[in-house]
Amino acid sequence: MAVQINPSILSADFARLADEAKAVEGADWLHVDVMDNHFVPNLTLGVPVVESLARATRTPLDCHLMIEDPDRWAPQYVEAGAGSVTFHAEAAHAPVRLAREIRAKGARASMALKPGSPIEPYEDLLPELDMVLIMTVEPGFGGQSFLDIMLPKIRRTRELIAKHDLDLWLQVDGGVSAATIERCAEAGADVFVAGSAVYGASDPSEAVRALRDEAATATSRAAWACDH
Ligand SMILES: O=C(CO)[C@@H](O)[C@H](O)COP(=O)(O)O
Ligand SMILES: [Co+2]
């Protein structure tokens, strides 16, 4: 699969969300960080804003739910127009049932892991998913420094995907920039969320293009991609 770049609107101007979404229409997905002030110590937006965003842009929405009880709320994000819905493993009560429900409603189902959560306990769950998100910062805020210590977990997740021969995307989120995207791609990521690196740039769509080129070059020489 070609690498994908998903700008995070957490770093955009929330008073101009529609324009900010349009500014990155060359991107693969628009990453929408939903925070409830309980699962993470920050509060962003909910279902009505996702509904409006889905009408405002042609870019499909990749909703990252940093909320408690995603079993209850995630299906509403599919109904609001999200094309991909990510729940956190640490918050889900019945992740298999939840992933099946998200898929049955017509979206891609994805599971995220905080930096402290290993991938191994979720190996049997992988076939139920369309994407795994490895957080490379503690969730809650944009603009944090990339955690290099997450690279072995990205590699391990890529190995498990290969072991089970799954068509599963591997997303990284947090501190992804021109300085770190190459390491992520070499470790096995193929979907890259970038907030401050895109919206902090003078030309956000050019930043998306540059990140995509850099990730594609790194992937083409990565060992994991050779037999992919
Ligand atoms: O989920 C989150 C933060 O919890 C992210 O999606 C951030 O929005 C990424 O921002 P940068 O680290 O790229 O600035
Ligand atoms: Co996110």
List the helices and strands and how they pair.
Blueprint: E1 4-7, H1 17-22, E2 30-35, H2 47-56, E3 61-66, H3 70-79, E4 84-88, H4 95-104, E5 108-113, E6 131-135, H5 151-163, E7 169-173, H6 181-187, E8 191-194, H7 196-199, H8 204-220, H9 223-226
Parallel strand pairs: 1-8, 2-3, 3-4, 4-5, 5-6, 6-7, 7-8
Helix pairs in contact: 3-4, 6-8
Bound molecules: 5-O-phosphono-D-xylulose and cobalt (II) ion (CO).
5-O-phosphono-D-xylulose (5SP) is lined by residues 8, 10-11, 31, 33, 64, 66, 137, 139-144, 173-176, 193-197.
Function: Catalyzes the reversible epimerization of D-ribulose 5-phosphate to D-xylulose 5-phosphate.
Family: Belongs to the ribulose-phosphate 3-epimerase family.
Binding site for a divalent metal cation: 31, 33, 64, 173
Question: What descriptors fit this protein?
Answer:
TIM Barrel; 8 strands; binds 5-O-phosphono-D-xylulose; alpha/beta; globular; metal-binding; binds cobalt (II) ion; 228 residues; Ribul_P_3_epim-like; 36% helix; eight-stranded parallel beta sheet; 9 helices
Outline of the structure:
The chain is an alpha/beta fold.
What's the overall geometry? Answer: globular
Helix % is 25-40%
Residue fraction in strands:
15-25%
- Can you identify the CATH class? Alpha Beta
Global structural class: alpha/beta
Associated small molecules:
5-O-phosphono-D-xylulose, cobalt (II) ion
Distance between the termini: 9 Å
* Spatial strand order of the main sheet: 1-8-7-6-5-4-3-2
Task: Please state the average pLDDT score.
Answer: 97
What is the fold named in CATH at topology level?
A: TIM Barrel
Overall domain count: 1
CATH homologous superfamily title: Aldolase class I
Oligomer: single chain
Q: Compute the number of strand runs.
A: 8
- The poorly predicted ranges are none
Q: Architecture, according to CATH?
A: Alpha-Beta Barrel
Number of helices: 9
Largest sheet: 8 strands, parallel
Query: Radius of gyration in whole Å, from Cα?
Result: 16 Å
EC number: 5.1.3.1
Protein name: Ribulose-phosphate 3-epimerase
Enzyme class: isomerase
Function: Catalyzes the reversible epimerization of D-ribulose 5-phosphate to D-xylulose 5-phosphate.
